[in-house]
């Protein structure tokens, strides 16, 4: 599903954000109560950006395979940060002029909520809104965070991503179609559809080959895919082109290497790389619209937070601003 970006820098924009949320709720088939919950969450977070962060952005993403299981709202800013998070989440701490009671209202309304803030560097907040009484929007043993945005001035993102589960693990893939716009998007989506239909017990090298065949009629793409082998306790990766991949285990960082080439055209024989997967492990895959020189140690405690916060922070601080940008983060719950 595409992700809606709403820039929020001035007092008139929370109202526009609320209207955009109403449209998205209608597209997602939300009932009146859930739509009202989403409107409150978006309004509070947008107002918070204006009042306390001097601006930022909201990223809205429909959840579920068909986009009908709820909406995720990701708020990102480079403001002063929140010095006292507990106070900010209390009922007595309100964003002036907003209809609820600030972040406390967001916390109560959202089915899932998390926050990461650093003094002087900014704040990231994620809130997921689902129809009341329904199951969690993240029912699997892993949590997934995603940011996907087109190149500025483009309306279609030339990247694609996919996360799917099978009996003993999961598959996580990112494709970056050559160039930008609709033709790049078509290449990426052809690859992602091949992965979607080929998933199961297949290894990453097999998936790269399936993606290569799917990309032949297109302009080509970079592609990376990771597969969790649950019984073996390892994550296996293979890639072609500029897809970056890291496995983070506490203080340990492991870069997983992609081979040179263009999927759908020419590339050398691909081998897989394997790395242990533990309960605290985090996988990050991203396209080259995100710079590669980020260091998780610069964000103390972020690995323990919701993966959408990590995806959002990497996008906020390391997007190149001249290319399509996609970052996918997957980790175990708990």
TrEMBL record:
Keywords: Kinase, Serine/threonine-protein kinase, Transferase. InterPro entries: HATPase_C_sf (IPR036890), HATPase_dom (IPR003594), PPM-type-like_dom_sf (IPR036457), PPM-type_phosphatase-like_dom (IPR001932), Ptase_RsbX (IPR039248). GO terms for molecular function: protein serine/threonine kinase activity. It comes from the Bacteria. It holds the Pfam family SpoIIE. Residues 142-332 form the PPM-type phosphatase domain. This is Putative anti-sigma regulatory factor, serine/threonine protein kinase.
């Amino acid at each position: 599903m595409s992700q809606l970006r709403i820039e929020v820098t001035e007092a008139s924009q929370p109202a526009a954000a609320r209207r955009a949320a109403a449209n998205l709720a209608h597209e997602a088939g939300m009932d009146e109560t859930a739509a009202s919950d989403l409107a409150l969450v978006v309004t509070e977070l947008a107002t918070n950006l204006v009042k306390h962060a001097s601006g930022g952005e909201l990223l809205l993403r429909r959840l579920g395979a068909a986009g009908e299981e709820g909406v995720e709202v990701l708020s990102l800013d480079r403001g002063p940060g929140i010095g006292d998070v507990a106070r900010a989440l209390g009922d007595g701490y309100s964003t002036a002029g907003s209809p609820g009671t600030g972040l406390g209202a967001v916390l109560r309304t959202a089915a899932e909520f998390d926050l990461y803030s650093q003094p002087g560097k900014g704040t990231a907040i994620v809130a997921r809104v689902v129809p009341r009484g329904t199951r969690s929007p993240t029912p699997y043993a892993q949590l997934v965070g995603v940011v996907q945005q087109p190149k500025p001035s483009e309306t279609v993102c030339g990247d694609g991503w996919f996360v799917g589960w099978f009996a003993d693990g999961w598959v996580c893939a990112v494709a970056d179609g050559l160039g930008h716009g609709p033709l790049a998007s078509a290449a990426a989506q052809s690859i992602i559809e091949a992965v979607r239909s080929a998933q199961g017990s297949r290894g990453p090298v097999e998936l790269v080959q399936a993606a290569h065949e799917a990309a032949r009629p297109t302009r080509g793409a970079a592609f990376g895919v990771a597969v969790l082998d649950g019984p073996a306790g390892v994550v296996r990766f293979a890639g072609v082109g500029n897809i970056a991949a890291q496995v983070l285990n506490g203080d340990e960082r492991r870069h997983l290497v992609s081979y040179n080439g263009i999927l759908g055209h020419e590339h050398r024989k691909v081998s897989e790389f394997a790395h242990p997967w533990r309960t605290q492990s985090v996988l990050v895959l991203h396209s080259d619209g995100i710079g590669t020189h980020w260091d998780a140690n610069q964000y103390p405690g972020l690995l323990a937070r919701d993966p959408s916060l990590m995806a959002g922070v990497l996008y906020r601080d390391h997007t190149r601003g001249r290319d399509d940008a996609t970052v996918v983060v997957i980790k175990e719950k708990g």
